[in-house]
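Model it.
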Amino acid sequence: MGSVELGQKVKQVVRAWRQKGYEGASAVTKRLLEFWFKEDHFLKDGSQSHFCRRQ
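Modeled.
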């Protein structure tokens, strides 16, 4: 498997894990992920950086 295919596979697995509510993660880890990705955090210029952080 090449690196591009591996990267795509990892993205698929992580996406499924997110859709299952971070199954298997500790309560602290789940809360941290919710803080990062389910709450609004604005930069000084008014923009958000969720997409880059999630990737």
